[in-house]
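User: As part of a screening pipeline, I want to sanity-check one entry by hand. Below is the sequence and the SMILES for zinc ion. Please return the complex as structure tokens so I can compare it with the automated output.
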Amino acid sequence: MAIDSPSTVAATPSSRYEHLRTEQLWQANWRSANAFATPLRSDDRADAYIFVAPPFTSGAIHIGHVRSYTLADAYARFCRSRGDAVLFALGFDAFGLPAELSALEHDEAPAAWVEHCRAQMRKQLEQLGYSFDWSRTFATSEPDMYKWTQWLFLKLLANDLIYARKAPVHWCRRCKTVLALAQVEAGCCWRCDEEVRLVDRRQWYLRLSAYNEENDQRIEELAGWNEPALTAQRALLGRIEGVECDAFALDGRSLAVFTPYADGIADAEFIAISPNHPELGRWVVDNQGPTIDAMNMQQVRHGAHGDSAKMHGVIATAVALQIAGGLRPLPLVVSPYVDARFGPTASIGIPTRDATDKMLAANINIEPTILPWQLKLKEPAVRRAVRYRAADFPISRQRAWGTPIPVIYCEACGTVPVPLEHLPVELPKDLTVSATGNTLATRLDFVDCACPVCSRRARRETDTLDCHMDATWIEMPHAVPREKRREAMFDDPELARWLPVSQFIHGADTGGFVLTERMMAKTLRDQGVLRFLPSGEPYGPTLMHEMVTLSGRKMSKHLGDAVTAQEMVDTFGADALRFATLYAAAPARSFNWNEDVLRYSSAFLTELWGYAEPRLHPDSGLTPALPIEQSDYLRRKLASWCRTAVKRITANFETLEMQRATRNVILFLGRIKDFERRVIARRHALDEYDERAIVFALELLIRLMAPISPHIAEELWRQAGLRESLLVSSWPVVEAVVERS
Ligand SMILES: [Zn+2]
Ligand SMILES: [Zn+2]
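Assistant: Here is the complex for your manual check:
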């Protein structure tokens, strides 16, 4: 049977491509075959753990998620096809403010709301054809999960890596609640517009700074990280080199002060201390508290990087800086500008050298200090020093929907950690939330307990952990089968099998999480848990991709105008959407979403179907394809194109250059059509060898594009009479493509 030439193809009735039907069919096939189950360990297959960060459980998958997960899914499918044993799963970040607020908005209990959202998101993700192993999923709000977040909290507390200190929090007196920074809008409560006040509260802090040095040094060892991912880690750590010397109070107490300008110390005009300096209380007299609060408020309103002239500092006291030749009296200024540059430290203000110091000096109205110092000191000791911007951060929040902090307050014994064998400390099953106050604090069935030490009546901590804390070990749960998570997590042998992550893909908005995950893996190593990970680095090769913007703004759950993926899948199909998000831009570039690229991708897939489907028809007797017969010049040319396509597209997948992969797929189809056109132009008709050559090339194209748009690839493969799913077809290799004759 002869294959129609291009001019007659259009006239031949061929089945129209129906994306909805095809996609549903193949998703059902994959489900019933349990096609993406994590394989058992075997000696003849390499293990590959492909990890993407879990979404907030908001209920809607948006185009930003689609970009991240399509990159990862295409890579996961490629790895399976090349023979790897792949772990690819998705969890849900289900605790915290976004979930709590949307539960409130829908008048639901948060547990029920999160469950509803999770089911809805899973359905959307399945409709996109993602090959997640759903048997490995998790939600951070499951007791089997937060048990281990609590376990970690206690381990870190025992090792002084979590500590409590007083810190200002944002308080709305009308709503009687502490507000998260995201809920403070221009200094006012997001809900009632009341001016937000700062009140001091005891907060739990994670001592991230303990691992700053190691996290910084190991950046050099991170192999296979793309440059943006490395740059993000360096920027978050904010390492700065300089020198340190001492300043003194009148009574001789000393304060270590830092500057990056070793040769500028003689020009010092003031000392600036961070409002978050651990020793601030020793240097600021009590009645200055409100002023510093007001300054913190400025920081909230304008951001520490703001250039508002009002952003300044408060003169707290005077100190004497020890410089060559004696002591120089200088004012000590509390200023949030220190943090943004050097972290929570004290720095030497040198206006002649530093633009920020110059701006500060101009705004603070510094007057000469006239106090005399009478200290007998040794020679000044100027030492080399390093500072990091990355600071310890508060992990407690005064809201109900979060991991309960496993601490008990007893009048006789003080602060008592919950014994490990009593974990998890569970939230009440019927917990509801309220816009005002923390409902957990009103639940006596939760609050009242017996002291683990003296058995007297005691009360539980009612602050919960920030969801950032839940995420500090977020790459680990997938590795452990669900049914084992209650009993063991960090010492499960599967962790050693899957860590470090073989390929991590994350968006540019999550670099901060990655830094804390790197920190937490090191603390676990130092606890003797992750002994198989001496570097304490949980991530192997890492791709940080840029964001999708919409009219110039980042799309995320914070924006109400995020385009939902659902509508686009309904209209154009999952394959077209997947193709479009990869085609739109290289991963390291952001792109502004518009539907043109989606229309183009959809048109390409329709064109592919229209060309390939009649040619791959099993009645043609040409499938499965035989290697290309190469006695003819044009067929030799096509064979060469086949080899090039395999070589290039394989390399594109290996290096996650998915945008290039889509372009090479388009190019390859163009070349196959070009072959046909040239044969007809030269010899007026295709002979059987030409037809076979086309079928061979099309089968190859389908296999090469399957990771990108898997449904249409499967359906064409089936059309060709190749009954096995593409999932069991191995990745084509160049040598096997065409036998040279
Ligand atoms: Zn309010
Ligand atoms: Zn007690």
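Points to compare against the pipeline: The first strand starts at residue 47 and ends at 52. Confidence is low (pLDDT under 50) at residues 1-13, 302-310, 557-561.
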